[in-house]
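Run log, item B.
One chain of 447 residues. Sequence copied directly from the ordering sheet:
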Amino acid sequence: MQKNGNDTYEIETKELVKVAASGWLGTAMEFMDFQLYSLAAAIVFNKVFFPNASPAIGLIMSMGTYGAGYIARLVGAYIFGRIGDKVGRRAVLFITITLMGLTSTLIGFLPTYQKVGILAPIGLVILRIFQGLGAGAEISGAGVMVAEFSKVKNRGLIGSLVCLGTSSGTLLANLIWTVILTNINEKDLFAWGWRIPFFASFIVMIAAILIRIFVKESPVMAEKKKLLLEERQEIGKNGKSVEADRKGKKSFLVALGLRFGQAGNSGILQTYLAGFVVTVLLMQKTIATDANIISSLVSFITIPVVGYLGDKFGRRKIYMILSLAMAVYSIPMMMLINSKNVVLLTIALVIGLNVGCQGIFALENVMLSELFGSKNRVTLVSLAKEVAGVIATGFGPLIAASWVSAMSGSWIPVAIMLIIFSLSTFFSSYVSEDVTGRDLNDLDDAM
């Protein structure tokens, strides 16, 4: 048994293990769906659902359906975030994982454009929207849950374990696609092979649900109800509301900036570049997936190390170091990718993904949880993630595809976008307070 860093309640170690495992599987589910869809959008959806368009336009339209899911995530973030704050964190995690798993599986059953015409891409967009609704609060809810269960001294390390779900999901999705691309000919791939990855989502969903059945509610919820009751009683005595005194505006803006940079880098590096390698550089489909697999394996070291460093030196400082490093690295990375040398391209992508995506993400869930008070934490973390996600990850690949096409395949627009995203995270962390180790029972936001 361990005490929480706030010394207000005790938590069984086995309960923390269950919560961490639940968060890990849920995140794996979300990022498996994310990567399955993004790779499908980059590799096959342009021909399966938009066969009458040119390769470049088909890729842009596929990225557009990818962006539609991110608009839905914003709605889901608010709806399920409110449920997480009003009803409980545990309840919302059941809803989100089920909705995500079922809709991802149903994508595998969609008819193609050749069979039903325009109804095929319409069905794809509808399912992508429902998938986005569920994803809107999944990783935010899981991240908040694990952070609230963890001790202060190792909150970053334990919280980063949820982020290992991103590596697990990305790794599994890329492995599935690699096996399919190397063992199925192109005719069979576009006929039925592309459906297989989406069926695999059902298995992960069942595993996550079975673990979440045995997870208890966050202890912060009980403490929050107690503090809110005391607050209402105090208001009843003196008739003065404390709502006007609550902080929050700066916390939300900082959280937006932190997420914007990481999400934007992820959209470019994990999604758009898979299509760039195939349609612009005219290289094999498996090169980008192989690079993602290697990157995911490396991140099993990167993520916990960054989580530990955040505990030791402060999350704000590590945020600034990683984001500035990615901004500086963007141009040489794209030059290496544009060389068309498979080894150099792979190394460049692995470094970029671990510095600009996975490393920063290891800090994100915990720091965002610490920026906000317990009263509206799930809602605000979810909204900060998804508002930035709609702009950066939802439309970043679409903008990149259009810009590169307009510049006849130049890599320069990609480098510029990566620099902008990375500097967004740097400046947001620079203006933020260091909230490392903050009391998560506090009702109010940090700034």
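Observations after the first pass:
- The CA atoms of residues 249 and 447 lie 7 Å apart.
- The chain has 19 helices and two strands.
Flagged for discussion on Thursday.
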